[in-house]
Amino acid sequence: MAHQSSLVGRRLAGADELHEAAELYTRVFRYEPKRVNLNPLLVQAIIRNGGSAVGVYDDDRIVGFAYGFAGRDRDRVDFHYSQAAVVAPEYQGRGIGRLLKLLQRDVALEWGHERMRWAFDPLVARNGHFNLNTLGAVGLGFHPDYYDRADTDRIMVEWDLTGSTAREASPAPVLTSADWGAIVRDEERAWIGVPRHTPPLGSTERERVASRVRASLDGLLRAGNVLVDCLVVSEDTSVYLAVPREPGGRS
Length: 251
Known about the structure:
It comes from Gulosibacter sediminis. The chain is α+β, with helices and mostly antiparallel strands. 27% of the residues lie in helices and 32% in strands.
């Protein structure tokens, strides 16, 4: 395996690099190329019009890729939206995801964006920890069936590009698999248990847990809370921490 020092991140440009990035994207997500593919011409247009396309290379091989574009919500808040970030399986756990986000951050700031948003699966707890604790983003909202198909529930996070840093973990209750999807309250705070390891797509267990997690997260975030932590608390369980949104809309 290559040494960490051989990994180099850079902005992507040119048809060859974008085709390589598209191939990595399709392979890592196990998409069927004829149904879900990434158009390099579209990505090139995104790059030129408020977006980002960045990669991490091991020598001349792309092993990580992320892209995003300029976004605006219904409240006319502008942000950089990170649509996808992928890392080759054999390179995961080596800090490439963080490097991709930092590269995107630089591009977003150059376009004048001070915040970045993206969506992630609430049942992928390791991503929750990375987004909320490693980067210091906050979970703003919950979106059932975000991509208009089953099993695509998503948490929307926002990352303050001008000041967010790694968040110190809060003391958390020890929950178990019996608490998956349940809300455990602690004064004004609320903890939601989820599987530490993501249940397989299409499994009965995933369907059951997803339903309970959906109800809890949707209710808490609609009530004006934000997510600030995702922590491992036992062998099989992680927890999200929801706290009241601070005045001004940010936590």
